[in-house]
Amino acid sequence: MSVLLTKTYDFSGDALELCARFRNEPYLFCLDSNRFDQGQGRYSFIGFDPFEVFQASGKDTLSSLKKRYARYSESSQQTLTPFAGGIAGYLGYDYGLYQEKIPLRSEDDLKLLPQGASRPDAVFGFYDCVLTIDHHTRKLHVTSSGWPEKNKASREKRAAARLADIERALARPFAPLTLLKRGTQYLIKKGTQYLIPNELSIVSPFKDFASNFTKSEYLATVRKVLEHIAAGDIYQLNLSQRFTCDTSGENVDPLEIYRSLRQLSPVSFGGYFDAGALKLISNSPEMFLRLRNRRVQTRPMKGTRPRGQGILEDQRLKNEIVRSEKDKAELLMVTDLERNDLGKVCDYGSVRVKEMRAIEEYKYVFQATSSVEGTLRVDKDCFDAIEACFPGGSITGCPKIRAMEIIEELEPTRRGPYTGSMGYIDFSGNMDLNILIRTLIHCGQKIHFQVGGGIVADSTPEGEYEETLVKARALRACLAGRRACLEAQRSYV
What is the pLDDT of residues 210-231, one digit of tens each? Predict the structure, then answer.
């Protein structure tokens, strides 16, 4: 028994401005494709006020979520949107440690939330209503399924009432996000002039941020990784460092920060999720898993170069990543790892590398990406696919389990949500999940973000350290620009 009511509008606005209409609603999410691309970034999804919230930690997290989800799963139906209702949220990297029975060695210094509760490894809301923006057709689809009602008449009644509530909310005036901007660029005050945030992004070192490594410690840790590679323990490992910014005394608006971040560097797998005591602000360019009609796909990324200051330098840096033997080897190893992971749950012979080493262009970096696909076996579902592939190989190393053990030995603090996944699973079992990289975690009076890079045999400690700074560039510019924008607003008003 299936119920789904849909209302469709013409829409050519901004997804985040639409999201801001519901900023005070609980467990608000925006799974946001602001780098419009019909293949990877066609849709953005908004949801809020779930009828149920799942939070859990430990080895039974995924199995417990699957049992809860099974209460509402139903057969696939024809819809105008890939996600008409289901669960949305995040699964943190630390769940993978329990899943693979890896001894916990690093300090979980973020384990307590401001209210004193333990930080969960997963938070998912169960959403009966979803707003979908189709950037290709410029339509907004509002869907309402009537869950958690089980009786058909009750479901239809609830679905109609919830749809009417959203229609009224869309018709009401609202306060838009308030960052000063001219065209699509925020104004940053410097003396008596206003500049765009790019000019703040060259500030170095991280004066406003505390790292969980000193530079010398990071370089020494890279050397330890290289020793493991030389000994044959691993072929590759992703090492990261975390930066923390204290926001005490500031009126922090996570949605405002996300607006600044997405303007600085548009991506296809970004998103915002209000998980209660913590907020995830993600500018991820990387897809973890997508499942549609039993076809499952993953798109690992490996190999990064900064964008140049002009056309000639830009082309030189792009050519550099194309020719780099180190980057080729790095992505090849991860692609092979993902192919093997998908092979655990896909039909024999169906797994193939669809694309190898596509160079994607972002505002701050070039990124090398591959695509691996397979057909999910009839006895497997989306949760089996997650278990087989989580966490993504691009942010662990090869072989995966040994790399995760070494990460847990060498990184001083637990990763938490970083390098986990955020996204959705609809009630018919299709899903789309990103990898939580280039992501800010707002919790209490602090904002944390983490950046890393893949280390292989010919890596250099200095080179690896500099790569983390390149990846952090947009995140730093965003937070620096946020403070400057607030100051500019005060001066302007």
Answer: 889 999 999 999 999 999 999 9
